[in-house]
């Protein structure tokens, strides 16, 4: 059961790093663009950064949920009323 908790913590750290990378690297690069003054040559780069923000945010969100499940699973399995034996 301890292995599941260790795996959950590792997944949580990876999710945290994905979220921090998104907030401190990708979002500042995205906010440099002024949507009203963007040229046609910059639109693909602007869209790519928007897609990266969505992807990294989704990764951080789902890894956080997965880590919470891994951390709670040993506790749930120890309860006899849950029926996860």
Q: Averaged pLDDT, please? A: 87
Largest sheet: none
Number of helices: 2
Overall form? rod-shaped
The structural class is mainly alpha
Distance between the termini: 12 Å
Gyration radius (Cα, Å) is 19 Å
H/E series, N to C?
HH
* Count of folded domains: 1
Uncertain segments of ≥5 residues (pLDDT<50)? none
Beta strand count: 0
Strand content: under 5%
Q: What proportion of the residues is helical, as a percent range?
A: over 70%
Structural summary, described in words:
- By secondary structure, the chain is mainly α.
- The protein has one domain (2-32, 40-77).
- The chain contains two helices and no strands.
- Helix 1 (2-31) runs antiparallel to helix 2 (43-78).
- The longest helix is centred in the C-terminal third of the chain and has 36 residues, at 43-78.
- The radius of gyration is 19 Å and the shape is rod-shaped.
- The relative contact order is 0.20.
Short summary:
This protein is mainly α. It has helices at 2-31, 43-78.
What are the SSEs and their pairings?
Layout: H1 2-31, H2 43-78
Helix pairs in contact: 1-2
């Amino acid at each position: 059961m301890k292995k599941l908790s260790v795996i959950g913590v590792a997944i949580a750290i990876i999710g945290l790093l994905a979220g921090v990378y998104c907030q401190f690297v990708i979002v500042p690069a995205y906010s440099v663009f002024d949507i009203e003054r963007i040229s046609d040559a910059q639109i693909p780069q602007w869209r790519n950064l928007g897609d990266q923000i969505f992807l990294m945010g989704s990764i951080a969100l789902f890894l956080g949920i997965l880590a919470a499940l891994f951390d709670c699973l040993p506790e749930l399995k120890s309860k006899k009323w849950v029926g996860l034996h």
